[in-house]
């Protein structure tokens, strides 16, 4: 398996007519493998790539990376773009302070540190002392801090780390009085942080996976354990498991007084089930207090004998309810704050009040409430953007971060009594944010549904139909995309580009109805919404098909792969990242089975199989000379959420098909995963390659 890229030749012309001379791709072996679904045979010639630790797969990966690197190395402004990303990334970033046991904690990155460092202050204006520096845990910055939690007495902090971007977690413990790291060490945890109670903590873990299959084998039989400080993991007590449902997972929560343990079970439907154990009883008996897993039930807080929850049962856009701890069944819950026309996103308890953050047309609005549900007024936020609050019941001090597409996370201190905000920290960047504007439009999708879209560009932009566009979308899993600052997009804007974010169905921007409208047999709505976004930008004279690049990751990678197959004429560049590309087999790997509530599976019914096969990116690549856009697939060797085999098989099929002359490349990162915790050095490398490819194939240059 070898191959080399021929010289990168440029054809001078308009639009995206910079194309590679015929690329010689690595030869990927095919084999005669078929699956039968309800009487229909489906070939899977690259099945061998699913075993991604073999020497054969490694050789193919090395050969593909060589072709891609050769192509990218010939782009004349690649290093100039890397330098600009480096300059733009080099600013001090400080996270929202949070108060624990009278001390203030926060994360700070001096600029180009691979991982942010955790600091502590005795007083808000006092000297900051470093508590935990994840950069010391690996030479290359690929060990990331995932979570930190504190014991009730304030003596211990448990922290979780992930290695090389994997979803696997390891927990360790620091004695905050002495600064000493204890011997306690937990392995093979996943999905949930350590949850303190008494002299130890609860956590969720799987049995140790088969050696060599840590990042691909299906995850089954998750269990909840209790770890006592000073004991080995082998001595940890099994608290909860459900052997009847191997493909479900759990999130434990303990109230602040350590009276009740709540366990949320997910992994079957779009919602959850909620269990409760009275820790004072001395037993390990759980009561199922909410069982209809079409809906979400989220424990919030205990005040006296009353338990507070968020749920969308009876309220697609969520409401706050409460129940007596002595009568906790859902049927006994009463409403505190009813559903509104906007989506309730978050609740922060502070002093004796609640701060409710709502999403209105995909942007944050915040309100102050009493704990009995009385609205005390709206909290004025700086602009159209995203806010996240930090506070604790019984404590008046509240902070929040605010960000938009052109302004990085800025920290404010909020006064509960006066309902006013005071600027606490505003980062200084090399990006001239005042030179850019954001507008929100609502465009019709194929079925007439109005879809919101944010459009960001330099002020005074001429609508001449020839501006380069970066169109981003996701559309799934009830995940909402609100305004946020990302260095990765800035050089595109600085060089005359337009960034557009379409809030597609399948997300959570308008509650559960919006989510369900983009799931299972409604998934085509998501693709139609995205296609309509591109058509709107063309119709409104922002751009034309030769100037549109599309980007999406994970479920968004699936989106990009699907719409390229359906409308290859509409886009010049496609950038599917860590995408779910094989819709017939996705549920057979790691945690993939959990996505069935959004996608359905090929084993559900003949109708579901046919529907999935009808849009699966891998199975609908045209092989008839249809001109496809330039495509750069990105994935990573430690991605154990969407395993890299998805991208491997997709890229191999693209390269073996007749889809025109535009390049079809794949970039496979090493010691990296699905994206979380990626060190800044690797982020800059990936941005440089991704945007060099996009700039070049859109006919853009660096100023």
CATH topology of the domain at 34-87 and 435-698: Rossmann fold
Q: Which CATH class of the domain at 34-87 and 435-698?
A: Alpha Beta
Number of strands: 39
Widest sheet: strand order?
Answer: 32-33-35-34-36-37-38-39
- The SS-based structural class is alpha+beta
First and last CA, distance: 40 Å
Low-confidence stretches: 1-20
* Fraction of helical residues: 10-25%
Q: What is the CATH superfamily of the domain at 34-87 and 435-698? A: Alpha/Beta hydrolase fold, catalytic domain
Overall pLDDT, averaged?
A: 92
Cα-atom radius of gyration: 25 Å
Number of distinct helices: 10
Our estimate of the beta-strand percent is 25-35%
Which architecture name of the domain at 34-87 and 435-698 does CATH use?
3-Layer(aba) Sandwich
Q: Quick one: overall form? A: globular
Largest sheet: 8 strands, mixed
What labels would you give this structure?
703 residues; alpha+beta; Rossmann fold; eight-stranded mixed β-sheet; five-stranded antiparallel β-sheet; 10 helices; disordered N terminus
Task: Walk me through the structure.
The protein is α+β, with helices and mostly antiparallel strands and 703 residues long. Among the domains are: 34-87 and 435-698, 3-Layer(aba) Sandwich (Rossmann fold); 255-339; 345-427. Helix content is 16%, strand content 33%. It has ten helices and 39 strands. The strands form nine sheets. Strands 32-33-35-34-36-37-38-39 form an eight-stranded mixed β-sheet, sandwiched between helices. Strands 3, 4, 5, 6 and 7 form a five-stranded antiparallel β-sheet that branches. Helix 2 (78-89) packs across helix 10. The longest helix has 19 residues, at 55-73. It starts with 33 loop residues before the first strand and ends in a 5-residue tail after the last helix. 49% of the residues are buried. The model is unreliable at 1-20 (pLDDT under 50).
């Amino acid at each position: 398996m070898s191959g080399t890229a021929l010289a990168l030749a440029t054809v001078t012309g308009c639009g995206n007519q910079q194309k590679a001379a015929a690329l010689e791709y690595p030869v990927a072996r095919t084999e005669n493998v078929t699956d039968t679904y309800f009487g229909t045979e489906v070939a899977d010639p690259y099945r061998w790539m699913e075993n991604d630790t073999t020497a054969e797969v490694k050789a193919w990966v090395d050969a593909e990376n060589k072709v891609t690197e050769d192509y990218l190395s010939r782009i004349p402004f690649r290093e100039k773009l890397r330098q600009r990303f480096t300059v733009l990334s080099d600013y001090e970033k400080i996270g929202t302070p949070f108060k624990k046991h009278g001390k203030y904690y926060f994360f700070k990155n001096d600029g180009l540190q691979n991982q942010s460092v955790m600091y502590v202050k005795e007083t808000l204006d006092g000297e900051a002392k470093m508590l935990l520096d994840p950069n010391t845990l690996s030479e290359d910055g690929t060990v990331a801090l995932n979570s930190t939690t504190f014991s009730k007495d304030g003596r211990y902090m448990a922290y979780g780390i992930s290695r090389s971007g994997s979803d696997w977690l390891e927990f360790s413990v620091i004695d905050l009085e002495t600064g000493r790291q204890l011997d306690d060490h937990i392995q093979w945890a996943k999905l949930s942080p350590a949850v303190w109670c008494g002299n130890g903590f609860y956590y969720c873990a799987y049995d140790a996976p088969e050696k060599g299959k840590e990042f691909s084998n299906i995850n089954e039989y998750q269990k909840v354990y209790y770890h006592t400080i000073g004991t080995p993991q082998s001595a940890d007590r099994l608290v909860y498991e459900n052997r009847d449902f191997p493909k479900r997972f759990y999130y434990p929560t303990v109230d602040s007084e350590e009276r009740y343990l709540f366990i949320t079970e997910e992994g079957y439907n779009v919602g959850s089930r909620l269990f409760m154990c009275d820790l004072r009883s001395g037993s390990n008996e759980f009561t199922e207090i909410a069982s209809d897993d079409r809906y979400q039930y989220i424990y919030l807080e205990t005040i006296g004998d009353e338990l507070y929850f968020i749920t969308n049962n009876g309220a697609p856009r969520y409401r706050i309810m409460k129940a007596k701890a002595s009568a906790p069944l859902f049927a006994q819950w009463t409403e505190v704050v009813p559903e509104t026309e906007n989506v309730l996103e978050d609740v922060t308890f502070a002093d004796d009040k609640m701060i409710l953050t709502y999403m209105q047309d995909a942007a944050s609005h915040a309100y102050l409430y009493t704990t009995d549900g009385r609205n005390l007024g709206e909290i004025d936020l700086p602009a159209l953007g995203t806010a996240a609050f930090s506070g604790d019941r019984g404590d008046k001090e509240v902070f929040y971060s605010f960000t938009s597409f052109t302004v990085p996370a800025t920290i404010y201190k909020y006064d509960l009594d006066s309902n006013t905000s005071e600027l606490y920290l505003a980062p200084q960047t090399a990006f001239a944010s005042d030179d850019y504007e954001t507008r929100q439009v609502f465009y019709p999708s194929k079925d007439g549904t109005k879809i919101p879209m944010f459009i960001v560009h330099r002020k005074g932009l001429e609508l001449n139909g020839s501006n380069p566009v970066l169109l981003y979308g996701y559309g799934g899993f009830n995940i909402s995309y609100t305004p946020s600052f990302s260095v990765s997009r800035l050089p595109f804007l600085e060089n005359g580009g337009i960034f557009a974010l379409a809030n597609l169905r399948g997300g959570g921007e308008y509650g559960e109805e919006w989510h369900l409208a983009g799931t299972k047999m409604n998934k085509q709505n998501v693709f139609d919404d995205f296609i309509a976004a591109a058509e709107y930008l063309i119709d409104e004279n922002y751009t034309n098909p030769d100037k549109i690049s599309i980007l999406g990751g994970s479920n968004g990678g699936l989106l990009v792969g699907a719409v390229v197959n359906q409308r290859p004429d509409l886009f010049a560049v496609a950038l599917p990242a860590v995408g779910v590309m094989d819709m017939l087999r996705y549920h057979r790997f790691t945690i993939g089975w959990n996505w069935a509530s959004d996608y359905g599976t090929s084993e559900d019914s003949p109708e579901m199989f046919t529907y999935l096969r009808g849009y699966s990116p891998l199975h609908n690549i045209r092989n008839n000379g249809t001109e496809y856009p330039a495509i750069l697939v990105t994935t990573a060797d430690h991605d154990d959420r969407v395993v890299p085999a998805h991208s491997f098989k997709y890229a191999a099929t693209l390269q073996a098909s007749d889809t025109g002359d535009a390049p079809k490349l794949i970039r496979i990162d090493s010691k990296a995963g699905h994206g979380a915790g990626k060190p800044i050095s690797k982020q800059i490398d990936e941005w440089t390659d991704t945007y060099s490819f996009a700039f070049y194939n859109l006919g853009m240059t660096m100023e």
